Amino acid sequence: MAILENDSTIVDAILTDEGRRRLSEGIFEIAKFSLHDDEIVYSKAQQASADSKFQTTPIFEATTDNVKALKYKLLTLTPDASTTSGEYTHLNVTRLVTQKGTQNGTPQATGNNAGYYVIISTEATYNDHYQGASSVDVPSGFLPGYSKIEISRKEDTAIKVDHGINDDGADNLLLSYQDTLPIELEETQFRVKLDHRLGRLATPDGGELKPIFIDDDYIATYMITTGMGDFTEVISKSSQAGSPILGARGPRLKLYVFAAPNINTSSDGVWDALGRDITSFFTNGTTTAKAIDAAMIVEGETTNVNITIPLRFVKNA
Known about the structure:
The protein is α+β, with helices and mostly antiparallel strands. The chain folds into two domains: 3-60, no CATH class; 93-316, no CATH class. The chain contains five helices and 15 strands. Strands 4, 5, 7, 9, 10, 13, 14 and 15 form an eight-stranded mixed β-sheet that branches. Strands 3, 6, 8, 11 and 12 form a five-stranded antiparallel β-sheet that branches. The longest helix is centred in the N-terminal third of the chain and has 8 residues, at 17-24. The model has no long low-confidence stretch (mean pLDDT 86).
């Protein structure tokens, strides 16, 4: 790692592994580029002498890790007269939809698994705890990921993501939940990144979505658009409580995650290499679990939609 001098302007271009591969094959060509401001901590803007604090913020060398690079992209927006004074006062935020009821969300797990979606990765594990005379109820945030058919069978097994203006519109009565999100803030193409060794994305009809690319670190990239059937839905404008986004909302993204064949098995090879054992994980049956923690990343192709979703894949030890 290196820190670049901040008293001069430097263009620091470093190729990713995929870029070097294409360069070696003679097929590397720059078609477009994107700028970002990942190194800026905007909470400093609310402190005294914010300008000087920004000026002394170190600029880190570009990273070749495609999962971490360009997480927060810069946007150029040209709002129309329907916004306040022809300008935006807010940008999109991205939120998980975790509340049941009006929001129709999927809660995350609680307790020692708080903040995770727990993917039950083998059918034997599911049956041991949640089937039969001594079974218990499936806890909130635990999803039947041992089967792409089971994970896509119910609405409440989808991981749901909303984006939009997180403001109630009380000050200017524009871009409230009853308004349509401006088209240049509405995301219609979502990139989803997930470790292909651990998880896959199911289609709403119980099939498997094919990634557009798998890199050398086993990170699969999927492209989901609003034209792909039940992966997205329009949020009703009848109630503000229908989304964690207070103001105008874009289309809701729904993701069905199931365990990859590498871990949906009785073999412990991948589990021992990438995970750990957690004692007293389950409340009945085999109480010790093997667990692998991972993250699923959702990014907007044209907007600032961006969220990292913690996943915990588990099976009986």
